[in-house]
Amino acid sequence: MNDVMPAGQIGRSLPRVEARAKVTGRAEYIHNLRLPGMLYAKIARSTIPHGRIKRIDASAAAAMPGVHSVVTGEDILKVIPEPYFGPAFHDQPILALGKVRFAGEPVAVVLAEDPKIAETASQQISIDYEELPAVYDEVEALTSTAYVHEALKPAGMFADLKHLAGKRDTNVALDYHLRRGDVDKAFAAADHVFEHVFRTPQQMHTPLEPHCAIADATSAGITVHSSTQTPSSVRVEIARLTGLPENRVRVRTAFLGGGFGAKVYVKMEALAVALSLLARRPVKVALTMEEQFFTISKHGSTFRIKSAVTKDGRITARYCEVIYNGGAYADIGPRVAQKSGFSAAGPYDIEHVAIDSFETYTNRPTAGALRGFGMPQLVWAYECHTDMIARALGLDPVEFRRKNLLRDGLPQATGTVLRDTATDAVLDRIVQRIGWGQPFDRGGGTIRRGRGIAIGMKASISPTTSVATIAVSADGSATLYCGTVDMGQGSTTALAQIAAEALSLDAEAVRVVAPDTDTTPYDMGTLGSRSTFHMGHAVRRAAEEVRGKLAAMAAEAGVPAGTNLPIAEIFRRKYGMQAGTIVGSGSFVPDYVPPNHDTGLTPNATPYWMSGGSGVEVEVDTETGQLRILRLVNVADCGTPINPKIVETQLTGAAVMQLGFTLSEEMVFTDGQLRNPNFADYKIPGIRDMPERLDGEAVASRQESGPYGAKGVGETGTFGVSPAIANAIEDAVGVRITELPITPEAVLRAIRAAAGDPLGDE
Amino acid sequence: MNDVMPAGQIGRSLPRVEARAKVTGRAEYIHNLRLPGMLYAKIARSTIPHGRIKRIDASAAAAMPGVHSVVTGEDILKVIPEPYFGPAFHDQPILALGKVRFAGEPVAVVLAEDPKIAETASQQISIDYEELPAVYDEVEALTSTAYVHEALKPAGMFADLKHLAGKRDTNVALDYHLRRGDVDKAFAAADHVFEHVFRTPQQMHTPLEPHCAIADATSAGITVHSSTQTPSSVRVEIARLTGLPENRVRVRTAFLGGGFGAKVYVKMEALAVALSLLARRPVKVALTMEEQFFTISKHGSTFRIKSAVTKDGRITARYCEVIYNGGAYADIGPRVAQKSGFSAAGPYDIEHVAIDSFETYTNRPTAGALRGFGMPQLVWAYECHTDMIARALGLDPVEFRRKNLLRDGLPQATGTVLRDTATDAVLDRIVQRIGWGQPFDRGGGTIRRGRGIAIGMKASISPTTSVATIAVSADGSATLYCGTVDMGQGSTTALAQIAAEALSLDAEAVRVVAPDTDTTPYDMGTLGSRSTFHMGHAVRRAAEEVRGKLAAMAAEAGVPAGTNLPIAEIFRRKYGMQAGTIVGSGSFVPDYVPPNHDTGLTPNATPYWMSGGSGVEVEVDTETGQLRILRLVNVADCGTPINPKIVETQLTGAAVMQLGFTLSEEMVFTDGQLRNPNFADYKIPGIRDMPERLDGEAVASRQESGPYGAKGVGETGTFGVSPAIANAIEDAVGVRITELPITPEAVLRAIRAAAGDPLGDE
Predict the structure, then answer these.
(1) How do beta strands A51-57 and A99-100 pair?
(2) Enclosing H/E stretch for B633
(3) A128 and A229 together in one domain
């Protein structure tokens, strides 16, 4: 990039380019789209967690005025003979076929001219089941004979999953194992061994815009308008399901009202497509906020972690057993178990590591990717565990971490060496911002205050592909075509800045078009904090191709090399008028070596590591268990921030989201029936739940392998929040919570139990 | 292209790829589009041909329920300070400003929630004028002091028009002059000199879909949905008018219900944009069929042609004075006068040539491009003239043409040498198909039959630019992005065939997206028969870039060179899954040397020449003047036909269109008022007007400089029809018609005049 004259677009806190459109209500969301002749779909859902469908009586619904038709899984077979989808396993039927596997599973659909009619009619569908034994807990799932699926059906395109094909009598969708050094020997020789178990509940993404897909199937092909984070991946999957070539399947999106991983891969799109193929009209499938509970969720988990530690505080060995509750369908869960699994031992330099990570099937709503892709569950566990060890050994938790920290240049558990991973700087900055070690008001009486910190580290995603195209018009204005979906994270702005920097333009001169597989080239998806790095590279390469073509055009037009003409002037010299377009494209696929099947080791698990952590100060009311977060500092290493203001809001936004997962959010089940499928009983953070002081900050760093030194920051803000709070609670009141959410009731019970109060024992 | 394995896509008579969508009513036309919140515009038009606007009283219209607002030229100034547009001259106000220059000119617009309300209200607008002297005839316009414009305003971007800027006291928008050899001397030395004058009336394009533009102006930019043949050029012009960069102006189109040159450059788009900027809502401007009469038309013309001929029939010199009636605004008329001007001497090898070609302003509706870009008017004249000379000298018209024919390798009048121009083959084939020289039934009594032929030649367009992009998906399916507008001519199919050939795919595997400046790169426009050649080159080059990138990707993935892997397999090797997109682009701008300003000569006026001609057999009823076309054969040289079936329909379609211009179509004016602005009184051909036998045929030829040997064929079918018919009439009944249309009345008058009947003298 020596040939690029820096235009100073990197590090600009440019306001989001779509801000005006959003505040004036002109920004497009798929939910607002209506097509002529469109039918509205409403889903009738299973009322039982596991069973065979005996009979579906849709006659009353079908007879209602305004109802176009009622569609069942059997009907889907007429247009899609193999109607099973999924990004890792092809296990999820578009509508239940023969069986249901969780309470809330889509069984039938009413198509009507009006959404209200569809909803009313959907309640008239009567379904008889023969119930089957079920399993709900992830630990029980390992040994239960209540099998959720007859056999495993991994997607054919993945070589590393092929050995699972057809495996029967198991609820383990995927088991990942890492073996580094000799853990057993190290434990036997240890001064101290600590073992703890931590749990997290199933939780919700809760984007404010629920899933919506509108499909329009015609003889020319299929168009899907979808609130998706992964238009390219949805296109490939719809092409597979329908047997169409990719270029006959168009998947487009607009702005998203949040995604957080809920909207990756096929969700409502396959159903909308099947319904449109059947009805031969456009069909809209738009979920309510409440239907999200039955669509996709965050894995509940059980994490048993065991460490060998020397008396002076060096961790010599660690064993991690991670069991994820994947619910009824695999979705991307197997990859969560695998990818987060290899980072389960934390950002520590540990010689002997063993990890067993399991994705289990249960009769619950499906779990998939959620901001952090499993890591928040793991950091929650290992950073509580870290503090518990430090306390037990009488060491300062920060010093204990520093002594064991995995620093740049050292291999992570997989063997992949850290490069430009500023975990130490993150830790230092948290310590500095929170005033660790300095005296503070610890309260008194029933109001006690404490501090806690936590750090975490995550791999980025690999293998994966991003492609970008840039068109430069004859007046020098540029248009960027890339599939990165702006769901509020500011990617449109950041990618415009990268393109502008590479083209020596102002970011305002770069227009970014909305993802549309007809227009924007392939991108695996907007997920895993990958867009800044992966798409950023592709965008920069596209700009470089443009620059090369501009130079060639200038040379053709007789401009002497080295002449610094404005782009518009180069076009004029070449074409004699305001005419022409230069089109450049660039692609990025990081180097990657798949983990060894036996050891789980690889020299190249990820193109880069992201680290982040939190420092908190809490106040606990020992009489009520009420918790106030007085201060929350989220610090991350994102390399060079492309747009510092957006980085800051990513970190504070992630803090608030993780605060909900830490303090209040939990999907509560009784016998597989969700008891709180509404946002009165399932409590996401409101404005009154905010920390009194909340800060987000990136440390000064640079990812040399990244575009302009940058890397992702979408997930890092989620890592430290939960364990830092639990650690602060122990600091304040001396009790340890090992299961989320940390409700006032949980805190009070722990306090009472510590005091020998029988209420605490319950 | 030696590296391309031919897939046999060239020369395939593939059915049009959009055929199914069209016959099932699913093909998109802009006329059918409604946007949420859209207002409908109805234009109030000038009732006088030339005058100052004294007062516009819109109070009654504005007060009508459902009317949003009434907009005048003065209102436009609030959003577009310099509201004058035009592709060659910036002379046309979006709405009349101060003056009107033809009866039918847009003066005010009603915006309403409903189109019917807008129409009713538009009739309530009262406008007072002060009338000004006017000029209507193109010959009178040369000397009249009734000036239509105060001063000439050529578009700033054209160097060759700059000398005209600010020129006053003239109705000549552009005068083109060619001088080759010494015409005066040659005439003085001639055995015979022949001079004739031919006229054509102002006529109509009559696409079945009238002009429609919908503009949606927001803070993010402007989107225009338009039934345009030139999305890129409209984008550049709207960007200029509004001061926006190109990438904030999106112009998209869909299928067009015909274009024929009526829809090139800005027509309703600037008005729609101004209205949307004023109303801050989407605005639709959709014309009725009848409003087309006041929007754009075909030039009426007067052509004085004079030839020096030796007694054995060699043409030694020719003088051409061409005067086009451009109407009130220049539109692309100056280019018509210039570009057709230099071909006015016909496809003949003439040593001494002088040409004066004039575009005049008159107080009539504007004239612009129409299929043939002036050439049908000129071929009409020079091929009648050719027959008249042959007859006068007693030579066979075919032999006379052969003796003088401009053959491949010889310079055309401009000095540009013919390469791969198969005019002789065209003439031979017409002779063969029509059975020239063979006996036929010449009728008798009042029914007489005759035969006629005519040939013509036209330059293609230059300078001009086309850019295409091709994206290939991971499954090997391809998408072609190009701005060529399919208005019924089959370009989508032909360009898919070219892309497929270059990619070694089946044409069915290539999807062609609709023109959209957000998506498809720059293309000057779909006009001048340029798309097959110019865009065909760009498409082939884009495919070549794709092939290069595929080869590089295969090499990167370790595929040995020369291995012939399917595209999908190359992707899989590189990305490990069905992922990625290869994007290639290509551009084409033909070599071009502008004509010398003094001599009009250039060694490179055009990248290729197109020739075509007709043979007809007619039957004349000498009692009524009624004409029957017994047979019409249209033959053209289009190089290698990409899709022979489509070439054939282009030739027969052009024949029918030109038949209307020949036999019935004429805009009739009295004092600048159009007397027949409706399709009852302005008669286009119906099914009963078809020739009894109609054939279209391309001669075997190859344009070496064209993509796969191909060149355009959209206009060649118009050349020979009119003069061949007039020549056949003279052959049948011995009278010569020199002015179109050749109505039964005109024939009868000529017959009577020839017989000395006073009715014929009127």
Answers:
(1) antiparallel
(2) strand B627-637
(3) yes
> Which residues, at least 6 apart from B485, have a Cβ–Cβ distance to it below 8 Å?
B228, B229, B230, B231, B253, B256, B259, B491, B515, B525, B526
Domain contains B152: no
Name the phi and psi angles at A398, rounded to 5.
-70, -45
Give dist(CA B602, CA B414) in Å, integer. 6
**Per-residue pLDDT tens over the stretch B69-124:** 999 999 999 999 999 999 999 999 999 999 999 999 999 999 999 999 999 999 99
Residue B33 and residue B286 in contact, taking contact as beta carbons nearer than 8 Å: no
Number of inter-chain CB pairs under 8 A, A vs B: 149
- Specify the CATH number for the domain of residue A71: 3.90.1170.50
Residue B381 has pLDDT above 60, yes or no: yes
Nearest of B7, B101, B18, B49 to residue B507 by alpha carbon? B7
Q: From the CA of A451, how many Å to the nearest CA of chain B?
A: 46
Three-state helix/strand/coil letters over B176-243: EEEEECCHHHHHHCCCEEEEEEEEECCECCCCCCCCEEEEEEECCEEEEEECCCCHHHHHHHHHHHHC
Q: Comparing C-alpha atoms, which of B94, B53, B31 is closest to residue B278?
A: B94
For the cut 50, the answer to whether the pLDDT of residue A225 exceeds it is yes
Pairwise CB contact (< 8 Å): B477 & A521: no
pLDDT in tens, B250-293: 999 999 999 999 999 999 999 999 999 999 999 999 999 999 99
Nearest to A589 among B18, B158, B575 (CB): B575
Residues A542 and B581 sit within 8 Å (Cβ to Cβ): no
- Between CA B708 and CA B716, with CA B713 as vertex, the angle to 5 degrees is 140
The CATH number linked to B665 is: 3.30.365.10
Q: Is B522 on the interface with A (CB under 8 A)?
A: yes
Closest chain B C-alpha to A271 CA, distance in angstroms: 22
Is A589–B581 a contact, with Cβ atoms under 8 angstroms apart? no
Mutate to test the interface with A, among B20, B31, B247, B519 (most CBs of A within 10 A): B247
Same-domain pairing of A670 and A725: yes
A96 touches chain B (CB under 8 A): no
Partner residue opposite A581 with nearest CB, options B158, B245, B521: B521
Minimal C-alpha gap between A503 and chain B (Å): 15
B472, B566: one domain:
yes
Confidence of residue A575 (pLDDT cuts 50, 70, 90): confident
**For B648-657, how does the pLDDT look when each residue is reduced to its tens digit (9 = 90+)?**
999 999 999 9
Count of CB atoms situated within 10 Å of the CB of A24: 11
Chain A hits for B470, Cβ within 8 Å: none
Q: How does DSSP classify residue A535? A: I
Q: Is B308 exposed, middle or buried (0-12, 13-18, 19+ CB in 10 A)?
A: buried
Inter-chain touch A581–B518, beta carbons under 8 Å: no
Question: How many angstroms separate the CA atoms of B51 and B103, rounded?
Answer: 10
Name the packing angle between helices B536-556 and B567-575 (round to 10°). Answer: 40
> Of B20, B467, B474, which is closest to A581 when you measure between CB atoms?
B467
Q: Describe the strand order of the beta sheet including B192-200 as a list of residue ranges.
A: B172-180, B352-360, B315-325, B300-309, B192-200
Q: What span, in angstroms and rounded, lies between the C-alpha atoms of B101 and A361?
A: 78
Whether A574 contacts chain B with CB within 8 A: yes
Give the per-residue pLDDT at A623: 96
- Which residues does residue A468 pair with via DSSP β-bridges, in sequence order? A482, A586
Residue A564's domain comprises: 19-28+464-588
Question: What average pLDDT does range A369-374 have in this prediction?
Answer: 97
Specify whether A422 is located in the same domain as A520: no
A760 located within any domain: no
Rounded to a whole number of angstroms, the distance from the CA of B529 to the nearest CA of chain A is 19
Q: Does A589 touch chain B (CB under 8 A)?
A: yes
Is A285 inside a domain boundary? yes
Same domain flag for A55 and A101: yes
